[in-house]
Design brief:
The chain has no helices and eleven strands. By secondary structure, it is mostly beta strands. The strands form four sheets. The protein has a three-stranded antiparallel β-sheet, with no helix packed on it. A three-stranded antiparallel β-sheet has the order 7-4-11, with no helix packed on it. It is about 0% helix and about 30% strand. Belongs to the YjdM family. This is Protein PhnA. Pfam families: YjdM, Zn_Ribbon_YjdM.
Length: about 120
């Protein structure tokens, strides 16, 4: 017996059921509107740019363009500090990195430029 409902767009389960205007998958608990396309939506790629407008990528090296005071500490990241091998992350502080003498921290892309 074939179901008239589309399979789950996340786990492809055939055990989908309707609950009002939603379709629900009991296996992965994914919910989506019944009138939506059964194909999963493509995730949009977020482009992170430095203070000058250069596109940043994982593994790039950047230079700090402003003295940055660290909260809860007397340490300061000085202008011109070079940070190597950055990792881009989601959130307000979108660069994850390690700075020599300070340690692991997160920076805002607005305060760096690509080296």
């Amino acid at each position: 017996m074939s179901s008239a409902l589309p399979p789950c767009p996340q786990c492809q389960s055939e055990f989908v059921y309707a609950d009002g205007p939603l379709l629900i998958c009991p296996e992965c608990a994914h919910e989506w509107p019944a009138n939506a396309s059964p194909e999963p939506e493509e995730e949009t790629q977020v482009v992170i740019k430095d203070s000058v407008g250069n596109v940043l990528q994982d593994g790039d090296s950047v230079t700090v363009i402003k003295d940055l005071k660290l909260k809860g500490s007397s340490l300061v990241v000085k202008v011109g500090t070079k940070v190597r091998n950055i990792k881009l992350v989601d959130g307000d502080h979108d660069i994850d990195c390690r700075i020599d003498g300070i340690g692991n921290m997160q920076l805002k892309s607005a305060y760096v430029k690509k080296a």
